[in-house]
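Pasting as-is:
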Amino acid sequence: MSNISIFQQQNTVATNREVSELSKALADSGGGSSSRRITMSKGVFRRIVNGKEAGKVKDGFLNVIVINALPKVSRQFYATAFDPDAAPTLPDCWSNQGDVPDAKAANPQSASCATCSQNIDGSGINGKGRACRFNRRVAVLLENDMSGDIYQFNIPAKSLFGKGVGNTHPFESYIKFLPANGESIDRIITQIAFDENETADVLKFTPVRHLTDEEIDVVETAQATQESKRVIQLTVAQQDGVVKLPPVAAKPAFESEAEPDEPVVKRAKKTEVPPAAPKAKLADVVSAWSDN
């Protein structure tokens, strides 16, 4: 029995015609497909289609269905500081699975992420944090969008780790919380919201309700496409067709010694606390995209 408090909305959904086999084939062919992603900044979610803004949500939250994600947290490294006025480039080095640099990386920093000097605490700007940042790329559908359009959404490091409170969690905690309560992330509506207690853009994730049968059909169709697999492995720059490479640095001489295990963070033992009591009711959720 689930401990999650979820709305059981009774709204009627109009019959949705299935997408034809021709349309599916063209969408999956690569050349004719559109790139879609959701970005977030300063409390606003923006919908980007083919590199151009197509709408935004200013309510501080967005309701989605997570339909795919890589099994491990990804990493990416930029050798230079972020410049909003500079032309976008691919990262100098990145790893989709967080283990070894991607073969397409222009300036791989190490043979292994576990032994990389950019993965050491203090290697970041001004000696703070890690120079190589964690992130998660997930494929999502928008609530109430029965078209099945798939969007890429990048979850930054500050929104990945930490403890949850009640039903609301950072992402890595959220994906463990759901199955522990008998729920599947691709069978529910997830609310992504900015944390009002943080000055930076930090996101929290909360379950809203179960999917309808019609929504499950849309999800399963989307999950069967190559697009749902492609978007979770591409950088944002690649999604927008921006493939400018960073300056190529001299490649370091990598040692061929056996890769050590990933460092383990020691944590103090604590008494297990049962899941918090479910919330009595969530606020009504409205996902209204505006063009201004």
